[in-house]
Amino acid sequence: MARLLQIFGFLSVLFRGATLTFQSLAVGGIVFLIFVLRATSEESDSVKQACLRWIRRAAVALAAMQFSYVLANSLILMQSADLSLGQVSGANFVLAGSIGILSALAIVILVSMRRSRSGMILLLPAAAIIFSSVMTSHAMARLDYRLPLAAFTAIHQTATAMWLGGLPYLLITIRCAPSPEFARQVSARFSQLALISVGLLASAGFVLSYAYVGSLQAVYGTSYGAMVATKVILFGLLLFLGALNFQLVRRGPASSILGSLKRFGEAEIGIGITVILTAASLTSLPPAADLARDRVSRSEIFARMTPRPPRLASPAVRELPEDIYEAQKLAFDAGTLSAVSYVPGQAGTRPNTPAEKAWSEYNHHWAGILVVTIGLLAFLAQAGRISWARNWPVVFLGLAVFLFLRSDPEVWPLGPNGFWVTLADPEVLLHRLFVVLVIALAIFEWRVQTGRVASGNLRFIFPMLVAVAGALLLTHSHALGNIKEEVLAELSHIPLAILAVTAGWSRWLELRLPSENRTRNALARLWPLCILLIGVALLNYRET
Amino acid sequence: MSGLNTLGRGVLFVLTMILGAGLFPAARVAFAHAVLLESRPSLNGTVAGPDVPIELRFNVRIDASRSRLTLILPSGDAQPLPIRKQNSAETIASEALGLQAGIYHLRWQVLASDGHITRGEILFTVTRA
Questions:
Q1: C-alpha distance from residue A435 to each of A383, A395, A408, A425 (Å)
Q2: Which of A62, A314, A424, B90 has a CA positioned 20 to 30 A from the CA of residue A193?
Q3: ipTM for the whole complex
Q4: pTM value?
């Protein structure tokens, strides 16, 4: 229970993200089956069966995620508020979760029975799933305009499911289609559905943003506003890819476009899941409109973001608190710990000391120098100017050494605590694992770049990890009571996340698109540029 | 992903999870949902004892029957406070009786209607009436 309590905040965002993802896949698959694939001919039966299989899998996963969320939330509530299971079972989130689980199981049963040819009956549990999701959305806890906001949330989530949730089924259709022409026709129908969905999604999103953010100042001055802006930017990326697909479907013979269509679809799904994760982390934040105090002003952002020379001198280890846990306790006793509002498992935040801030800035700036080097060399290698520049992944080894030395100053080799003893601390252990991962990444990608691995799965490790890192970065920093420092830190992390997502998926597309697709050339330049910009952003990272 | 074999997918999955875990410490910052807009007694405020009415107003609808108020006395002992029937959806109220002069911590935990659990603490001082 103690461990569950410790990671509860992060777990709830992950469960919410996974629930929204599987909900989109289940509902999107049903809409695709009924309105895009339709009950066509006998020869398309294999496509229909493949779609049904994936709808069933998504529904099973949705039921599992909903159950996990309800279980974790119930356990925490029972333990922290000393409630019995009977008392917790009447809570709104338990009711919503139960509807979601039962609806998902109903889909599994209906799909397995295969009685209905059209599948229209599946729309009922699909609607119930959206209803259950809206029951745990911001709208349900609002004091004003509760029902209209719930209706717009339902439209927003349904449109997301129809578009992003339908995409994997389009890829399945393209792969299993009896003929290229069949695939082209289905793609054209999906494009129309996607256009309608985008319109609905954007309109409902605009209304919800107006209600929950409320002003331009709240967009950049609060965590919620900044995350909404991030969603809009990622939505723009998706629209760009969607537009490329839309054009593809409308030109050329089917046989020549399907290869590109599949690959763009993969990137759309990846970025789509990133958007859903961002949406999930938004649900854990209080709406910006509710936070009138402690917003960050334009002048404060300008002061923080104005370029300054990087910090290349580090404070000494002895200047740092020897034991950060003891420092946290001392801050609590002294009343300097922020404990106004937090979730179970946390005890408020301690402001960093000047030495800790300087230590962190130094770390970010040296990491920035290494990442700029990686970006520049990758850019030169892609341009084919300097052959040895292809060895750029080796620089990751330098980053690994740097992380090993600097990420935990209280631990060996810099700190007084021994190597083996501190591995018992999960945070230190994870940092060490991260170092191992960076080393592995350097070796894998170096083999890819230098032609030692010309094909196969190793090529996809680098883009996948960069894209996933970007997505996870968007779930990481959530201001508590909107402390200004948290918002400023978030504002500096968001560009890194967006650049990482762009870099990862552009490299993925460069590797996956057919060689005749000219977009590959632009993408081959785009991802090194994004890495370069990540380095520049790190160089300008500030905590003071 | 059709080009990926089972082993490759496994490698990708494991590496992705490790990376996720690597970023995990950063993800352990704070997640908060319900915002305390107003309280009686106020944060760091001073009130006259011995009987102190308590009222907390939030930005969201609160499920009062599944929320908790606990008073930490100057001696360090915890005293649960019964929550009254709600007058409005966003407030919870109680009353602490017979308080001596001293520094108190009011710990609150609320369940919002959308399922989020949030807790917090209000430090206040009680003086003699």
A1: 30, 13, 12, 16
A2: A62
A3: 0.80
A4: 0.85
User: Testing the interface with B: which of A212, A340, A364, A490 to mutate, by most B Cβ within 10 A?
Assistant: A340
- pLDDT tens column, A7-30: 666 677 778 888 999 999 999 999
Distance from C-alpha of A501 to C-alpha of A245, rounded to nearest angstrom:
19
Which residue stretches of A250-292 are H helix? Answer: 254-283
Residues 463-492 of A with CB under 8 A from B: 464-465, 468-469, 472-473, 475-481, 486
pLDDT tens per residue across span A449-494: 998 877 777 888 889 888 888 887 777 544 444 467 778 888 888 9
User: From the CB of residue A424, how many other CB atoms can be counted at a distance below 10 Å?
Assistant: 8
Size of interface A-B (CB pairs under 8 A): 200
Answer for the pair A133, A19: CB distance below 8 angstroms, yes or no: yes
DSSP letters, A470-515, are HHHHTTT---STT-HHHHHHHHHHHHHHHHHHHHHHHHHHHHHS-T
Cα A90 to Cα A315: distance, rounded to the nearest angstrom: 54
Q: Which helix (H) or strand (E) holds B124?
A: strand B117-127
Which of B11, B29, B117 lies closest to A344 in CB terms?
B117
pLDDT at res. A453:
79
Closest CA to A10 of A311, A343, A271: A343
Residue B46, SS3 per DSSP: strand
Give the pLDDT band (50/70/90) at residue A506.
very high
Closest partner residue to A140 among B16, B34, B114, by Cβ?
A: B114
Query: Pairing state of beta strands B117-127 and B46-48?
Result: parallel
